[in-house]
Amino acid sequence: MTLPVDPTPLIAETSAGERRFDIEIADDMGEREQGLMFRQRMDDDHGMLFVFEDTREVGFWMKNTPMPLDLIFIGQDGRVRAVMRGEPFSTAVISPGTPVRFVLEVKAGIADKAGIRDGDRLRHPAIDAVANRGNPG
Fold it and tell me: Where exactly are the structural domains of the chain?
């Protein structure tokens, strides 16, 4: 399954500057369950943003995913909580052990290459709509 690319890129604000990603958005249960399974390749500037209805602990696995991935776990404030590696075809659960609202999956090594670290802010309308609630400034 390939989802449409969202017209607005996701921006990672890092100490090394901004990095843009073209993303697919998985925001319902079926899309999140399918994710990037069976994908053979993906561009370095591409990813999939998983959007959850509420902030909670989540777990991912790579059972049917042939590509190694970086999983970037993001809190409801839009800040990175953890960056973890997903190994191809693994059934090991990947979880940061802390509640998150979003997860961005990119090719393995891209988070490090882009300088994405814990605490960095990721911006996209899907994230900003949650992160800016109750924060008018």
Answer: 10-131
Query: Per the confidence metrics, is the pTM higher than 0.85?
Result: yes
Q: Residue 132 contacts by C-beta under 8 Å, 6 or more apart in sequence? A: none
What whole-number distance in Å separates Cα of residue 26 and Cα of residue 108? 19
- The 10s digit of each residue's pLDDT in 7-46 is 999 999 999 899 999 999 999 999 999 999 999 999 999 9
CA distances from 110 to 39, 83, 105 (A): 17, 11, 10
Q: How many CA atoms lie within 13 A of 116 on its CB side?
A: 31
Backbone angles phi, psi at 73, to 5 degrees: -90, 130
Topology of domain 10-131 in CATH is Jelly Rolls (2.60.120)
